[in-house]
Amino acid sequence: MDTDSLRSDLTEAVIGAAFEVANILGPGFLEKVYERALLRELTLRGVSAKAQVSFPVRYKGQYLGEYVADLVVEEKLIVKLKCVDRFANEHLAQCINYLKASGLRVALLFSFQKPKLAWKRVLLGAGNATPTRSLSAPPAASA
Question: What is the CATH number of the domain that holds 10?
């Protein structure tokens, strides 16, 4: 299986887990609750994930500080969790900066604010992110 296919399968697995969390918990909790629930759901599904992963930020070789990602899945994918009515440019910029700091290429941005989970896939190096998804059920598995 090629790298893009593996990445696609991994994003589908994380999106499915996020829908499960959204369907069970519903809206209204703090981001930390969704982070813990998603970490648990991924673990139950046999997907390796770590919470609150730090990445150093450097400028011309000088350490400036750290970015802390909500979740890193399989050391390949960053997950950013929000509870907002709609995604803002700042949320996308935050994901892009996490990707730059980590050296990874794909991030998933989720909002649990509304009854329907909203999400975006953010690719480093791509012109823009894929459109926001707002679905009540996970996407159908591809054959």
Answer: 3.40.1350
Domain residues for 10?
3-135
State the Cα angle at 34 between 142 and 8, rounded to 5°: 20
Any domain includes 100: yes
Give the span between the Cα atoms of 37 and 22, in whole angstroms: 9
Contact 132, 120 (CB under 8 A): yes
pLDDT band with cut points at 50, 70 and 90 for residue 4? low
pLDDT band at 118 (very low <50, low <70, confident <90, very high): very high
Q: 46 exposed, middle or buried (CB, 10 Å; 0-12, 13-18, 19+)?
A: exposed
Instruction: Give the CA angle between residues 44, 45, 50 to the nearest 5°.
Output: 75
Number of compact structural domains in the chain: 1
In a domain, 142, yes or no: no
Residue 95 has pLDDT above 50, yes or no: yes
Read off the pTM: 0.81
